[in-house]
Amino acid sequence: MRRATSFLTAAALAVAAFLAAGPPAAAADADLVRNGGFESGLDGWSCSGGTGAVATTPVHGGSSALRATPAGQDNARCSQTVTVKPDATYTLGAWVQGAYVYLGATGTGTTDAAVWTQSPGAWKQLTTTFRTGPSTTSVTVYTHGWYGQPAHLADDVTLVGPDPGGTGPGQPQPPAAPTGLTASATSSTSVALSWAATAGATSYKVYREGAAPLAVTTASAAVTGLTASTAYAFQVAAVNAAGESPKSAAVQVTTSGGGNPGNPGLPAHALVGYLHASFANGAGYVRMADVPASWDVINLAFGEPTSVTSGDIRFQLCPVAECPNVESPAEFKAAIKAKQAAGKKVLISIGGQNGQVQLSTTAARDTFVSSVGKIIDEYGLDGLDIDFEGHSLSLATGDTDFRAPTTPVIVNLISAVKTLKARYGPNFVLTMAPETFFVQLGYQYYGSGPWGGQDPRAGAYLPVIHALRDDLTLLHVQDYNSGSIMGLDNQYHSMGGADFHIAMTDMLLTGFPVAGNTARVFPALRPEQVAIGLPATTNAGNGHTSPAEVNKALDCLTKKTNCGSYQTHGTWPALRGLMTWSINWDRFGGWEFSRNFDAYFGG
């Protein structure tokens, strides 16, 4: 038997329905999101790493929706900065679809709001409410997916609340003030600045007192023309068609003294080669005195540790049994002095394929400094090459910021090299030869990642390079024995042709967000600090590049010609030159590599 609903029960149901629906919007309320239905493409929206696109099916309303696809460590975050009134209540809503979809708002001045759902194959409405702080004038609304998941969809995004006046849909809004401004690579006349990319910004202005603002289009800038030993304060503002944001918090910088310790006595374009001084390796032994004058930097391969963790580095000439034509130690030292008298630099290279070095303790660090110093002193060398490979460098779990490393093997290596640099002074030559896995792969992956599971060696050289960039003479990444690596065009590039060297070098000279995090940008190196590393012959390593392709890469990077499909972010005629493995293999190949270098640069 069915009972009739009483008057009181009906009233209660009506009240419940009212509360579930929420209070009606006030007369002055407005939807402040610009292009929330994506009918005008991505106008008004900024998607991380180029992950966003407009879809025409499926859609919730109208004819378009947002489709954003996570890639690597990027969760496909699409955001918009909206002008709001202080001390006011707003309701954020969107229709979404996907395995994991998040909707939220940051910069509210109170408690930031976020909500998420799992809704594969069906549209679901997400809503959340927040109140702005007493001084809040803008918030950033966003949607994103999750790492390793398929694309998610969003449509009909709204932010309903008090209209601050003239800023409703269709009205351009200035971006929020940039955050995370940091300075690095400070020299006597320049500094590198970087900051977190600001949603909705199309450009930025860098301010310092007494100078016109510097306009840039990326979240980094190289400021030049500074005075040595001088304190400066920098701020940055974000710009779009609606105007300019407030300035960021200031960062203080003091330039170093005069001089140019990073490039002691090198020619404008230098040829770097490794000399098999302690072994033959199938290419035959080359005596120091017989190294041609083409080579400007000669790296002695290798100084190796007595054990992986000892830090005790030893170097000795190739045994007579393996190298019948090896010179005596006295002849070797005399030949080094002759090379130096001719303007060449001779370094001890530590590591190599078989020389695993892990400075996991301060005792190992101190032994490293002492033993490397003995080698430099005994042979009268000009400096040090770091060629740590294999498992020498890896990042501990939780060590996620290359700007402030905590892993002992990283921290101790940085400390050891700084100690050696201080001991030998401004003419000390410091070079590094990491593999792409330890440097450019850091654009996608860094260490074990925020959730663990990645190779902890990914990008592990980045904190070392960054901490030592003011002392670094040359970085010559090994563009060989490498898997395919993603470039700044978000395409994978494979070794063996000009394209690989162009893309990999462009990353070093442009800078890049580490693991896709735009708040942690690895700043660009100076072009005179960078050389391209290649194998001299097909016997020397995988990824041999023909002279014609080498020249194409040099043309593109120094002249912006012969670039092929990859478009560089600049032109760098001051690019230092080339490195090869090795001098011995180049002789084996009839000196093809060095002769091509000399012909290209007029040596």
Automatic annotation (TrEMBL):
GH18 domain ranges (all copies): 269-603
InterPro entries in UniProt: CenC_carb-bd (IPR003305), Chitinase_II/V-like_cat (IPR011583), FN3_dom (IPR003961), FN3_sf (IPR036116), Galactose-bd-like_sf (IPR008979), GH (IPR017853), Glyco_hydro18_cat (IPR001223), Glyco_hydro_18_chit_AS (IPR001579)
Signal peptide: 1-27
Any GO BP annotation: polysaccharide catabolic process
Keyword terms, alphabetized: Carbohydrate metabolism, Glycosidase, Hydrolase, Polysaccharide degradation, Signal
Matching PROSITE patterns: FN3, GH18_1, GH18_2
A GO molecular-function descriptor: chitin binding
Location of region: Disordered: 159-183
Entry EC no(s): 3.2.1.14
Superkingdom: Bacteria
Every Fibronectin type-III domain range: 177-258
Family according to the record: Belongs to the glycosyl hydrolase 18 family. Chitinase class II subfamily.
PANTHER family referenced in this protein's UniProt entry, alphabetically: ENDOCHITINASE (PTHR45708:SF49)
Protein name: chitinase
Taxon lineage: Bacteria, Bacillati, Actinomycetota, Actinomycetes, Kitasatosporales
